[in-house]
């Protein structure tokens, strides 16, 4: 069943910065996601809600993409970025900011499959997707304004 894929404004701006092989890896991922849904993703994020309803795919090198399934046929690209030590650029730090949560101290991240054993994606309620979408816009504005000085 084909999946409709959309990007948040924040993800769109992050994707605009991808070049060469990184851009190609992202475009290949989009095709795979549209055709295979959650099977195109690597793992679910663990931690407080809504993190377990979000999935991640390793694109190329340390580049990651984070998505939320609104329903069986619609998925939002929330973030695209590197997993690195720089807290200002780390995609997981941005994800925690976006979700408005922080994993507890000493928490160990695991990587359960994105799809359930029956092949279903973890669905995120429309309200949570809307909240993530609004936070993505606010984060995008905040970070854009930091560079205008």
Please describe the topology of this protein:
Layout: E1 4-7, H1 9-16, H2 20-36, E2 43-44, E3 54-58, E4 63-71, E5 74-82, H3 91-99, H4 126-146
Parallel strand pairs: 1-5
Antiparallel strand pairs: 2-3, 3-4, 4-5
Characterise the protein shown here.
With 149 residues, the protein is an alpha+beta fold. The chain has one domain (4-146): RelE-like (YaeB-like fold). It is built from 4 helices and 5 strands. Strands 1-5-4-3-2 form a 5-stranded mixed beta sheet, sandwiched between helices. It is globular, with a radius of gyration of 15 Å.
Key attributes of the depicted protein:
4 helices, 5-stranded mixed β-sheet, YaeB-like fold, alpha+beta, 149 residues
Give the termini distance in whole angstroms.
47 Å
Give the name of the CATH architecture: 2-Layer Sandwich
What overall geometry do the principal axes of the alpha carbons give? globular
- Tell me about the largest β-sheet: 5 strands, mixed
Number of helices: 4
What would you give as the CATH superfamily? RelE-like
For the secondary structure, the number of strands is 5
Strand content: 15-25%
Largest sheet, order of strands side by side? 1-5-4-3-2
Fraction of residues in helix: 25-40%
Mean pLDDT across the residues is 88
CATH first level: which class?
Alpha Beta
Using only C-alpha atoms, the radius of gyration works out to 15 Å
Report the uncertain regions: 145-149
- Structural class, by secondary structure, is alpha+beta
Tally of discrete structural domains:
1
CATH-defined topology:
YaeB-like fold
């Amino acid at each position: 069943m084909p999946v409709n894929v959309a990007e948040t404004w924040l993800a769109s701006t992050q994707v605009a910065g991808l070049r060469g092989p990184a851009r190609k890896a992202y475009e290949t991922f989009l095709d795979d996601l549209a055709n295979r849904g959650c099977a195109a993703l690597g793992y679910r994020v663990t931690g407080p809600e809504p993190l377990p309803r979000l999935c991640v795919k390793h694109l190329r090198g340390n580049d990651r993409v984070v998505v939320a399934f609104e329903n069986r046929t619609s998925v939002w690209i929330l973030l695209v970025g590197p997993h690195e030590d720089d807290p200002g650029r780390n995609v997981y730090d941005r994800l925690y900011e976006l979700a408005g949560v922080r994993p507890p101290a000493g928490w160990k991240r695991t990587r359960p499959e994105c799809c359930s054993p029956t092949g279903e994606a973890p669905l995120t309620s429309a309200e949570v997707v809307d909240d993530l979408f609004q936070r993505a816009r606010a984060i995008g504005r905040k970070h854009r304004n930091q560079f205008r000085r």
